[in-house]
Amino acid sequence: MADASHTSFLPPVLTFCAAAVVAVPLFRAMGQSAVLGYLAAGVVIGPSGLSLIAETETVLGVAELGVVLLLFIVGLELKVSRLLSMRRDIFGLGFAQLAATAAVFGAAAVALGLTPQAGTVVGIALALSATAIALQILEERGELQAAYGQRSFAILLFQDISIAPVLAMLPLLATAGAVSEADASLDALVGAGRAVAALGAVVLVGRYGLNPFFRLLAASGAREVMTASALLVVLGAALLMDKVGLSMAMGAFLAGVLLAESDFRHQLEADVEPFRGILLGLFFMSVGMSIDATLVRAHWPGLLAATLGVVFAKIALTGLLLRSFGSPWRDALRGAALLATAGEFAFVLLPEATHLGLLAASTTQLCTALAALTMVLAPLTAKAFDLALEKTQRAEAEPEPEGFEDSDGRALVIGFGRFGQVVNQVLLAQGVTVTVIDRNVDRIRSAARFGFRVYYGDGTRLDVLRAAGIARMKVVCVCVDDREAALRIVELVHHEFPQVRTVVRAYDRIHAIDLMRLQVDVQVRETFESALSFGQATLEELGVEPAAAAAVTADVRRRDIARLVMQKSEGIMGGADLLHGTRLEPEPLVAPKLKPHGLSRETRDIIGEDEFAAP
What is the pLDDT of residues 8-34, one digit of tens each? Predict the structure, then answer.
């Protein structure tokens, strides 16, 4: 038995892996965040569930390691340029959000009987928001670059920055609670001096020692040594902070920031990045394991009321602040709903405060359960808010299409997004008069600032097309990014205005084939030509002569066009043999005799008119 003791660490590792493999796909299949899956997995395998990992020491050890490494990653990604470009939203809006919500929740905690020091900790813990959950929702929506997404991210970034000074403040709060002791002030002064000295030492080593250190290691050519050295630096800094009375997490954060300024930052980031998901999973599972289900069952009415109160209070406060910083009220509500959770770092602050004697263990358990419950409720609330806002927007009276009395365009452009804007510039550069319509009010206002006249209107409505003067136009350019709307517009134009030629933006290959079946005059896939240019540029950078690279690109274009024509009649696998292989000389393309609907004149020239039946 003693000989096999070295395998005792395997059961917990296998348990964590198995729980993640089962829970995360299950929650993703239900349309929920992976974070909720990790939390649920932690509850199931923890002491309050199946007790597969029942030792408290194991739970605390995993949680501490996950927090340390998570904070290291946050620091590693922190760039000065990023802070400067968003400084107003980060330090203005971010500070206001954290201060206002912390003050409200802190006052509520004091009113419920906690000391001012404990109320401060609880208020800050609940004021923070879950970065992982909010960013994942934004990425799923594809709106991280939207205005409300950027402002939400700015608030999260400020919270990530503020966690280090907040952690440093905890020992001072604990000391402030013991002012009755005669030597408390002296101890606090000595402790502060040691902390400042340790911080100075870490900064100096990071500023002047890390680059030579990593340069020496890089010369060895052993990549794994670079990863090991990063862990050495982060764990060493964490241990040093712990020895001087500060948080290990703060040391890890500081190490990450110092490595972010290193010449080897990108290499280290590439080495550490694959561990990001695993570390976050370990962290959230440890949070789930720390929830005392017995305590939750005993206090569930109060916890449910507190959870609802925290979520909706954060939505109200954060929404008002976003609105005061210039966000439209819809964006303000959507951003506030994203930030309604308690933050990951609540599970750092609360145990640390308990360790320092600021909070009782039972209070910490209740607050931890409350924070975890907000992580379950808030994403559901954010989704409900999003659906309600969409329904409200649809229910509102749609603005009447504008009058087109002053429009005299030869071409009608429907859609003024990133694609339509470039099309419009090309037409204007040739002196072609253009009438542009779009149904996005914000986009129309933005276009006006740059001197473009864009009319409000829905291109899928016949009355709007008539009012825009499509009957007298030669060409309609359908540039919308909604494939179904594009198909409806084409059908409408072909039925009502058969003399108007249709040039349509295709979302992808399947959409292009659908448009060809509708016999559009020209369809252009939105990314195809740019991808060909990208590939040709890559060949040239690899040393291929420009003429040869252009010939290869032309050959790929010919084969792709032939495959597109074959897919129209044979299905998606038509012409699959044209995908592979190289061609040094042009060969006849085997394509069915079809009418060339949807192919431009240049495309028909590339294939050869004899490949098609007469139109």
Answer: 667 777 888 888 889 888 887 876 667
Burial 480-515 (b: 16+ CB within 10 A, else e): beebebbbbbbebbeeebeebebbbbbbeeebbbbb
CB atoms within 10 A of CB 526: 16
Asked if residue 82 lies in contact with residue 168, where contact means CB atoms within 8 angstroms, the answer is no
Domain ranges of the chain: 8-176+268-390, 407-526, 532-615
Residue 147: is it exposed, middle or buried by C-beta count within 10 angstroms (0-12/13-18/19+)? middle
Per-residue pLDDT tens for 438-453?
888 778 877 777 777 8
Q: Is the backbone of residue 500 left (phi > 0), alpha (psi -120 to 50) or beta?
A: beta
pLDDT surpasses 90 at 376: no
pLDDT at 184: 46
Question: CB-hemisphere CA count at 13 Å for 538?
Answer: 8
Sheet of strand 475-478: strand arrangement:
455-456, 434-438, 411-414, 475-478, 501-506, 522-525
CATH fold of the domain at 8-176+268-390: Na+/H+ antiporter like fold (1.20.1530)
The string of DSSP codes covering 589-605 is: --------TT--HHHHH
- pLDDT for the residue numbered 189: 65
Q: Which residue do the tokens 């729980």 mark?
A: 19
pTM higher than 0.70:
no
pLDDT digit string (tens) for 551-600? 888 888 888 888 777 777 776 666 566 656 554 444 444 444 444 555 55
CATH class of domain segment(s) 407-526: alpha beta
Q: Residue 374's closest CA among 85, 134, 114, 26?
A: 134
Q: pLDDT band for 404, please (50, 70, 90 cuts).
A: low
pLDDT in the model for residue 3: 52
How deeply is 81 buried, as exposed, middle or buried, from its count of CB atoms within 10 A (0-12, 13-18, 19+)? exposed
Structure tokens at 31: 């349309």
Question: Measuring CA to CA, which residue among 507, 509, 505, 510 is closest to residue 522?
Answer: 505
Q: What is the 3-state secondary structure (H, E, C) of 288-344?
A: HHHCCHHHHHHCHHHHHHHHHHHHHHHHHHHHHHHHHCCCCHHHHHHHHHHCCCCCC
CB count within 10 Å of CB 295 equals 16
Q: Please tell me the distance from the alpha carbon of residue 197 to that of residue 251, in angstroms, as a whole number.
A: 13
Distance of CA 363 to the CA centre of its chain: 33
**Distance between CA 164 and CA 247 in Å, rounded?**
9
Is the confidence at residue 535, as pLDDT, over 50? yes
Alpha helices in 504-545 (DSSP H): 509-517, 528-541
Average pLDDT along the chain: 77
Tokens of 204: 């100096």
Confidence class for position 275, pLDDT limits 50, 70, 90: low
* Distances, alpha carbon 249 to alpha carbons 66, 79, 234, in Å: 10, 19, 10
Distance, C-alpha 20 to centroid of its chain: 21
Distance CA 312, CA 272 (A): 37
Determine the pLDDT at residue 107.
93
pLDDT at position 124: 92
Domain 8-176+268-390 shares a fold with domain 407-526: no
Is the CB of residue 327 less than 8 Å from the CB of residue 151? yes
